[in-house]
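The records we work with from here on pair a chain with its fold. A complete example follows; check for yourself that the lines match position by position.
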Amino acid sequence: MREIFLVATALLVISFATAQLSCDAITNGTATVGLPSGKVSQEVEKYEAALFLLLGFGGFSVLLALVYNAIRRHVFRDVSNLDTAFDAGGRVTTSLTAVTVGVQLLWPADLLQSATVTAKYGIAGAFWYSSAVVVNIILFPLLSLQFKTKAPGAKTFLQVVGARFGKGTHIVISCFALMTNITILTCIIIGCTDLFQALIKDSSDEFCVLVMATLFGSYSFVGGLGSTFYVSYFNAFMAFVILAVFVVRIFYVPDDDSLPFGSLDEVYERISCLVGPADNKERSYATFLSVDSLVWMVQGTLVAASVCFCDQAAWQSRIAAKPVQGVLGFFGATFLWFAIPATIGTTTAICYLSFSAGNSTLMLPDSDINAGLVTPYIAQQALGRDGAFMILIMFTMLMMSTGSGEVMGISSIIVYDIFQSYVCPFKSGSRLGHCILCEKVKKEEAADETTRGHHPTMSDVCRCPAVTECAACVEDQEAILATTGFSQQLLRHHCPVHGEYRTYQDALVRLKSWTILGVSLTIVPVGLLIIHSGMDLNWAFMTGCVVTIPCFPGVVLSIVWVKATAKGMVIGSVTGLLCGVTATLARASTLPGGIGDFWVNTSEGYTVMLGSCTSFFVTFIVTIIVSLVTHTIKDEDDVALEWQKVRDIDNPLNPWTNFYLEEFPNLKGNQKPSYHQLEKVFRKAKVTAIVGSIFCLSLFVLIIPSVMASLGVLTSSEFASYVTSMHIWSFVMAAIVIVVTPLEEIRAIWRELQTRKLFRKSTYSQVDKFAERPC
């Protein structure tokens, strides 16, 4: 514990020291600060931001991580387990899953970009922007349920790819996965740097990236993935509270007997005087019949698909819950996520349009609008310094959740898919169906071999006891829980069966900590390179999907289609990438300025839509065609053998069957339920996922848009009703987040304590039973 405090403190000291150095450099004229060119004023002093963000949010997040560690150590007793660092114990509650998925997918860029598209295209912009992401959140439960049923022991989606298709395909898809993580971090770094420099005085590039690195890495280093769940709740709590205060103070509580922008009716009257985009109905900003918004929705859906389905940070947060809780958590996340960007994007953008109507001197330049500065600009105009602090707090909260998730995602790929697979595997050349400890055929596999006509001898069959039935392992685990810090690393494990693997896992736990620290520190030089490259948030957000979307079809097919092959995955993804980039550059070259105006033309709406659609459909079609030609699946035995590859992904110290003891109470030792048994037990979750997906898609893609589009150009009362309904939606979601989530988490902890109390005597008797039994 002492080492944890020292590292966290060191991170904070480094950030403060560098912030002071950059401040001195500015004072001496040896460094330049990239200030926004628009009219967003810098209301926050640099020292205030440093103290507020680093000591306030960073310090409190580290404390939450320590609380989480204490709970895992004294209640769940799995703090020393490697998997716990990346799956938070595998039994995350429904509401905590909903909050974490919703907040980690809610990039700071979402709050900026939702206002940008609304300011450009009208009131439909924020809705279609939010719907593009929501579509992918809605569809993910169906895929994650397949994942949890077929590969319940996997901690990364890349492990499934590696188990099914081998080394070459695993390396290719891993490159795409890391590219996705880098794209997301790029958007976070650019968006947060723009915001920090818009609101904080003398905030250099170095100051911005160091603040981000500290906030991302400190509590992730201390508490692993589980701490991000707790911190995500705190961040969601703060974000909803600030959003509610922001909305109420702008529209519902007069300040000095007047509202900052007037009533909703007055806002509507001013917006009605503006000439909107040419493709909007009657060129009005108050209509859902907006072609540009629909185009953005198409390209936004593909952008969201690449980051939802190919981002390990998203996967690990979603597979940390059991199937039923995970499915319900996703649908809860759908409504939670939609509430924030739709509300703040609509609110700030209509206020901006109203504020600038008839007075062009109040309008922001296009560069600032594309940088996402509409929201902070309106916050300052409405609430002054208080508004600047509110926006800074909200964006910092969301930045922490998303950024730490990416740090954990990259770290899990490094630990599980690089180090454990290629650098230092436990035993190289392990075979399908064989025990990783003794390298003999597993019992259930031996039975299957017998039914196929093969008869392995008794000496060839694995007889390793389950870790829960091993007396030596019970003693080793008690010794681990009785020590902390450096002393724990010096422990020698005595179990002759599991001890060697437990030592290997201890090494991976230490590697995990240093990997998280290394990834966090790497953000500093990489962030500075990104900032100095000249790309803006709009380009990174939109064009990044062209190079990441080729990963999407292969990932989905590897989980749901037994006939997918290694050749299909590699040829499809590489071909899709080349065709998508070519289509993007070809379209950009036809625009004014051609490729010479690279940043603008390659991020133009139709260019991005062409490139991303080409990437997706070429990858999808080529992968299917090549797989159909090259697959070797002939009968049900081949199907069972193919899925057995991913079912065998497991940790013998923490077998996935431990998570399903309630569903399969009759399992003993190393017995595992079959795929069909898992599918039967999770049928309720499957039905829930299908029904919920149909309902949510109908609501967000058909019902609400159809009703609003049928109204044509909204009247003043219709406009006010829609905006008010968005506000009510966010208030309801805020109440659910604030009240339900902590109650459910407290209930889960209480149940675990009661369970341990009830079965303590039986546990002791179990130890006595196996005390004289050789391991």
In short: Confidence is low (pLDDT under 50) at residues 1-38, 449-453, 763-775. Residues 205-251 form the longest helix (47 residues).
